[in-house]
Amino acid sequence: MAWLAMNENQVGSIVIDSSIHVHRALGPGLFESVYETVLAHELQKRGLNLRRQVPIPIQYDGLTFDEGFRADLIVQELVIVELKSVAQLSPVHRKQLQTYLRLSGYKLGYLLNFGEALLRDGIVRSVNGLPEATDTEVEEV
Question: Are 69 and 58 a contacting pair, CB within 8 Å?
Fold first, then answer.
């Protein structure tokens, strides 16, 4: 697969697979920063480009403020990944990701809670105008 020609759903599939791999290896209960570091390594090992702790600017009153938010990971300049390590996600965590998508213009984001016993129970997928994936674009993990 040509990495440069990947779409959001293909990148997202790799993000989820990598996240499950990391969670199985480390288990729940570590600090969010540990999962961010290890997941970034795993994604890069799989050939993906990413940026960590990326400012999401806010535009207000004709001005741009970079101090607003920081996305944990932006993968392939297509997908925002927000990491948590909490007992349970709250609605504010979901709103945070939706706000990041809206402000940044990205179309796909994942909220991953590494605090869950099974990571699949802590995965939230959020879209911002992204068309549904076809079966050939996304493989289930």
Answer: yes
Work out the burial of residue 134: count CB atoms within 10 Å of its CB; fewer than 13 is exposed, 13-18 middle, 19 or more buried.
Answer: exposed
C-alpha–C-alpha distance, residues 69 and 109, integer Å: 15
In which domain, by residue range, is 16 found? 7-127
| Burial track 49-78 (b if 16+ CB lie within 10 A, e otherwise) | ebeeeeebeeeeeeeeeeeebebbbbbbeb
Three-class DSSP category at 41: helix
- pLDDT tens track for 52-73: 999 888 888 998 887 778 999 9
Per-residue pLDDT, 74: 97
Q: What is the pLDDT of residues 94-136, one digit of tens each?
A: 999 998 999 889 999 999 999 999 999 999 999 988 766 544 4
Q: For residue 122, give the CATH number of its domain.
A: 3.40.1350
What are residue 3's phi and psi, to 5 degrees?
A: -60, -35
The share of the chain scoring above pLDDT 70, in percent, equals 89
Query: What is the spatial distance between Cα 137 and Cα 57, in angstroms, rounded to a whole number?
Result: 31
